[in-house]
Amino acid sequence: MLIRDGDRSSQLATCIGTAPSFLLSKEDAIAIINHQVAVIEHEWQSVCNEANLTEVDRKLFWRRQFLNPFAFLNAPKEIRTPLTG
Fold first, then answer.
1. Which side of the chain, N or C, has fewer Cβ within a 10 Å radius?
2. Residue 2, domain member (yes or no)
3. Distance of alpha carbon 41 from its chain centroid, rounded?
4. What is the three-class DSSP state of 46?
5. Is the pTM of this model over 0.90?
């Protein structure tokens, strides 16, 4: 999806760079991202349990589909780094 200025990368830095287009400050965008990371980490196990995911599926999704390291490349230092597992 085209995010900004021809940039299609699925990276948080891209989202933060275009935050003003959505009437968000850089600080507000960072706060939203950090909250989302924290919620995903906190709720991961319970959501996987509710979905009856096997341990193999959980490992396949974690840090691949959810909190993929590529998304965090070039992100500002204020972005919370996800836990590894």
1. N
2. no
3. 10
4. helix
5. no
Answer whether residue 4 is part of any domain. no
Would you say residue 49 lies in a domain? yes
Maximum Cα interatomic distance, the chain, rounded to a whole number of Å:
41
* Domain housing 23: 12-71
44-80: pLDDT as tens digits: 999 999 999 999 999 999 999 999 999 999 999 999 8
Q: Using one digit for the tens of pLDDT, what is the confidence trace for 20-43?
A: 989 999 999 999 999 999 999 999
Q: Is 11 in a helix, a strand, or coil?
A: coil
From CA 64, how far away is CA 85, in angstroms rounded?
Answer: 12
User: In this structure, are residues 62 and 44 in contact, taking their beta carbons and an 8 Å threshold?
Assistant: yes
Domain total of the chain? 1
Cα(22)–Cα(49) distance, integer angstroms? 35
